[in-house]
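ok so for the tutorial part 2 we go from a plain amino acid sequence to predicted structure tokens. step 1 is just haveing the sequence, like this:
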Amino acid sequence: MTYKQIGAVVNEIFSEIIGESQQVNEDLSNIVEVGKVITSNTTFDDNYENYTRKIIDKVGKTIFHEDDSTIEHLPIYKDSFEYGSILEKIRVEAPEASEDYTFDLENYTPDDLFTFEGAEASEKFYNNSTTFKTKISLPKRQLKSAFTSASLMSRFISAIENRIRLKMNAYTSALEYRTEANLIAEKFKSGNTASLVNLFSDYVDETGNTSLTADKALTDAEFLRFCNMKIGMISDFMTKPSILYADGGFTNVTTKKQQTMIFITDFDKALDTYLYSTNRHNEYVKLEGYSTVPYWQSGGTDNSFAVRSAINVIPASEGRKPKSGADNRAKIVQDGILGVIQDVRACAVMCEHDEVENQNVADARFVNYWYFRDANYIVDTDENVVVFYISNYRPVGTFAEQPSDWQSGGYYERDEDGNYITAVLFDENTFYYTKVRS
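step 2 — the prediction. this is what the tokens look like for a chain of 438 residues:
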């Protein structure tokens, strides 16, 4: 082992700490070690004892890097069944009301007592599942030369198994995130304006604020206060019978207990930092009962809000990729997504199975393990779902004929990558947008 003399160094550091000298550029290689990986051409000059310089230093302590294999999963509906594969979801609808002439006998017309008035019903079937596996080979004899006891080798094997569990749980969590991202994408694809709430444009329209911009919205206490009001109102609205927040025209009721609220962590931390920390009566403005996520798909390479708040997907309703020819399926690209309130039945993981198989390889004295995971990830846009986002572009829809102010150049459309571009040639089938702020 090499011992570095740092007496003079600690004296200099102490002088900096107590204010006797200014902070200087320090060479930390005299103090800190970053470790090394031993390879076939590594020299052992620094790894001999300091008496004869002939005996190699021995390992005195072994630690294993083990992460908590528990991954936080999304708060979506989960259920399972062992036999059969199809999930059947049935909805029923009662007949409409008719006039009661009990207290208006002059206009009474008797019902035909023997006519049939049945309930209406519809059903959906889900019969797709996903599956994947991970294989690991664990030794019986090969590692014994690297450890000094059975307990140390056992801990090494345990660290491998821990890593497998962590990775399998991470895979499963990622699939849940994609299921949620698909639900959000389906809502943007359908274009149901009641289910897509642009909090920034609503704030500008309802308050008349002429200075706030979308990129600064999450640092503005007034905007955050407005968001909490709007989100709370939508949550209340969903508890009443309505067809507004679903895509199938069904009358839905989603009680508070049946609501799942998920918001991106930026929104949660913005509320803490810019609203609650300066507000005197948080009980009147505090948003509660939601879960947070760091992103909808991933953090990308820089964990920027633009990436984490975005989805870039081909929704499942577009079908599988064609085996030949061009892939013309629609892509949904949207950033600025803050959160979602959904019926717990709108997004689910069904029939999740976690199994492990093993096989002893006798002629090489090791054991192969296979970790299997399969599940059915489903969404149902016929349930209540509302997506909240911020954008400087306001959706205005399609037009049967060219608007009178078309030549002003204030209309935009989106390309296949989700970019907003100035609309030039009018098309009655194109979905158009206008800017909230010029």
